[in-house]
C-alpha cells in the first residue's frame, strides 16, 4: 500500500468508530474513543504535514480509477495544517464535554465522531461534489447536537440552524451542478483556473462561493450564527466554532487559488463585504446579554480578517494567504478557549447571562485569568497568538499601497476597538464588581472544567512565543496551496480522462 492510500482512512476510521460508540452502552469506552479518534487524526495530520512539506502533494482515487474519474482525495501542507488545528479544537471540546457530563447523553459521542468524519473528509477531498457530501456529513450530526444540548431555547436555535444550512446546502449543490453542466467535471484539479474569465462558469462558481460564505457566517448572511450557536451547550459551540466556519475558510481559499486563479477583478467586492462584516462583528456584541452571545459576534468579526486577505493576493499571494492562514489558526484556538472557559462558568453558576454574574475575578482567579488572556488575544494584544495574527494581516494589507490598504487597515483598527469594548464590557460586568451574594461562598469553578480552555490558551501563548516557526509552517502550507501544478498532478495523474479542455474556456466562451 502506498502512502497516499491512507487518505480515505482519515474519514473512514471516525465513521466506523462512531457506529461502535452508538451501539456500545459502556460510557468509559465511549469517552476514551471521543478523545482517541481526534488525537489519532491529529497525529495523522502532523505526519501528513511533515510528509507533504518534504515531498509535495499526495493524491489518491478510491478504487485506483484513472485520474478525473472516481472519488479523489488529496493532501498538501495547507490541508494538513487545517486538519491538525481542527482536530486540536475537536479534542479539547470533547475533553470538556466529558468533564462537564455532556457525554452522559447516549448519542453525544457518536454524533461528534460523525462530525469529525465530515471535517476530515472536507479538508482532504479533491472534488466539489464530494465536498458537498462531506458538508452534509458534518451537518447531519450537528442538527442533533444543537437540538439535544444547551438551553431551553435550543429547539428554536436548532430550527434556525437547520433552515439556514439547508438553504445554503441547496444553493451549494445547485452551484456544483451548474459547474458540471458547464464543464463536465467537478474535480477541483480539472477545473484549474477555469472560472477566471469564463462567464457561465464564473456564475456557477459564484453560487458555490455564496453558499460557502453563508455557512461561514459572512455578512450579510451572518445573523443566524449568533442566534443559534450560543443556544447549544458550550462543548458543542466550541466544536462548531473551530470546525464549521473554518472548513468553509479552507474551501474558499482553495477555490480562490485553484478555480478563480486569484482573479483580481473581485478584489473590490471582497474588500467591501469584508470591511462591513468586520465592523458589524466588532460592535454588535456590545448589545448582547450573555457571554457566549458576545463571543459569537467575535466569531463573525474574525471571519473577514481572514477572508479579506483574498483581495491582496495580486501583490504577494504568499504573504497575503499566509497572513490569512495564521489568523485562522489563532482564531480557532482563541475562540475555542473563550467558549470553553465560558462553559466552565455556566456549568458552575448555572448561567452565562452578564447581568447575573459579578466578582468572578476574586472568586475564580484562574477562570478570570484564562478569560482575560483570551480577550487580549482576540483583540490582538501580546503575549498571545492574536498579536502576530493581526500584525500579519495588517502588514499584508499594507503591501498593496492603495485605497484597499487604507480602507482595510482602518477597518481593522476600528473593528478591533469594537471588540475591545465588547470584551471590556464582559470583564467589567462579570469579573469585576462586588462578589455575588446568592451563591455559596465555597462554590468555585472546578479545575477539571478549566483545564481544556487553559490548555488552548497555553497553546495560544506558545504560538506567540514561537512566532518564527509558526510563520514558517504557515508559509510552507501556503506554498502547498499555491503549487497548483503539484496539486493537479497528484489528483489527476499522468493520464486523466474527463478533464475539460482549458482552450474552450478562453475569452469567456464555452
UniProtKB/TrEMBL annotation:
Q: Which UniProt keywords apply?
A: Cell membrane, Membrane, Transmembrane, Transmembrane helix
Task: Name the residues that span the membrane.
Answer: 81-100, 107-125, 160-181, 201-222, 234-257, 269-287, 294-312, 324-345, 366-385, 405-427, 448-471
Q: What is this protein called?
A: Multisubunit sodium/proton antiporter, MrpD subunit
Spell out the InterPro entries in the cross-references: CPA3_Na-H_Antiporter_D, NADH_UbQ_OxRdtase, ND/Mrp_TM
**Which NCBIfam families does the record associate with it?**
PRK08375.1-5
| Single annotated GO MF | NADH dehydrogenase (ubiquinone) activity
Q: Which family does it belong to?
A: Belongs to the CPA3 antiporters (TC 2.A.63) subunit D family.
Write out the annotated subcellular location.
Cell membrane; Membrane
Amino acid at each position: 500500500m502506498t502512502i497516499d492510500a491512507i487518505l480515505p482512512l482519515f474519514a473512514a476510521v471516525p465513521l466506523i468508530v462512531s457506529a461502535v460508540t452508538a451501539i456500545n452502552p459502556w460510557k468509559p469506552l465511549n469517552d476514551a474513543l471521543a478523545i482517541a479518534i481526534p488525537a489519532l487524526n491529529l497525529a495523522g495530520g502532523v505526519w501528513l504535514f511533515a510528509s507533504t512539506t518534504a515531498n509535495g502533494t499526495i493524491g489518491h482515487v478510491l478504487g485506483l480509477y484513472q485520474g478525473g474519474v472516481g472519488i479523489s482525495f488529496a493532501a498538501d501542507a495547507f490541508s494538513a495544517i487545517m486538519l491538525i488545528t481542527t482536530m486540536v479544537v475537536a479534542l479539547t471540546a470533547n475533553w470538556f464535554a466529558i468533564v462537564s457530563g455532556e457525554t452522559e447523553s447516549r448519542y453525544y459521542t457518536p454524533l461528534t465522531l460523525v462530525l469529525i468524519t465530515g471535517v476530515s473528509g472536507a479538508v482532504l477531498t479533491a472534488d466539489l461534489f464530494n465536498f458537498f457530501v462531506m458538508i452534509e456529513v458534518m451537518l447531519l450530526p450537528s442538527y442533533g447536537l444543537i437540538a439535544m444540548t444547551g438551553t431551553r431555547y435550543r429547539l428554536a436555535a436548532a430550527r434556525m440552524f437547520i433552515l439556514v444550512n439547508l438553504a445554503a446546502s441547496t444553493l451549494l449543490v445547485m452551484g456544483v451542478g451548474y459547474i458540471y453542466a458547464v464543464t463536465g467535471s467537478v474535480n477541483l484539479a480539472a477545473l484549474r483556473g477555469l472560472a477566471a474569465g469564463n462567464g457561465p462558469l464564473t456564475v456557477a462558481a459564484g453560487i458555490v462561493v455564496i453558499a460557502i460564505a453563508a455557512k461561514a457566517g459572512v455578512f450579510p448572511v451572518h445573523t443566524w450564527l449568533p442566534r443559534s450557536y450560543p443556544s447549544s451547550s458550550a462543548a458543542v459551540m466550541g466544536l462548531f466554532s473551530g470546525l464549521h466556519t473554518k472548513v468553509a475558510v479552507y474551501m474558499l481559499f482553495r477555490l480562490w487559488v485553484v478555480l478563480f486563479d486569484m482573479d483580481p477583478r473581485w478584489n473590490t467586492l471582497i474588500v467591501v463585504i469584508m470591511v462591513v462584516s468586520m465592523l458589524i462583528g466588532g460592535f454588535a456584541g456590545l448589545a448582547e446579554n450573555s457571554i457566549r452571545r458576545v463571543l459569537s459576534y467575535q466569531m463573525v468579526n474574525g471571519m473577514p480578517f481572514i477572508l479579506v486577505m483574498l483581495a491582496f493576493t495580486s501583490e504577494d499571494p504568499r504573504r497575503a494567504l499566509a497572513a490569512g492562514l495564521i489568523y485562522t489558526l489563532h482564531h480557532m484556538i482563541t475562540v475555542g478557549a473563550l467558549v470553553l472557559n465560558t462553559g466552565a462558568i455556566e456549568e458552575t453558576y448555572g448561567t452565562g447571562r452578564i447581568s447575573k454574574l459579578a466578582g468572578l475575578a476574586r472568586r475564580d482567579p484562574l477562570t478570570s485569568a484564562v478569560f482575560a488572556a483570551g480577550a487580549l488575544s482576540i483583540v490582538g494584544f501580546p503575549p498571545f497568538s492574536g498579536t502576530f495574527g493581526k500584525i500579519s494581516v495588517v502588514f499584508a494589507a499594507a503591501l498593496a499601497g492603495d485605497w484597499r490598504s487604507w480602507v482595510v487597515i482602518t477597518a481593522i483598527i476600528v473593528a478591533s476597538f469594537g471588540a475591545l469594548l465588547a470584551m471590556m464590557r464582559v470583564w467589567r460586568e462579570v469579573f469585576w464588581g462586588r462578589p455575588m451574594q446568592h451563591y455559596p461562598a465555597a462554590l468555585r469553578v472546578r479545575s477539571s472544567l478549566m483545564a481544556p480552555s487553559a490548555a488552548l490558551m497555553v497553546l495560544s501563548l506558545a504560538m506567540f512565543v514561537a512566532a518564527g516557526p509558526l510563520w514558517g509552517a504557515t508559509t510552507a502550507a501556503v506554498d502547498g496551496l499555491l503549487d497548483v501544478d503539484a496539486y493537479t498532478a497528484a489528483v489527476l495523474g499522468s493520464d486523466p480522462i474527463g478533464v475539460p479542455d482549458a482552450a474552450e474556456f478562453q475569452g469567456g466562451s464555452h
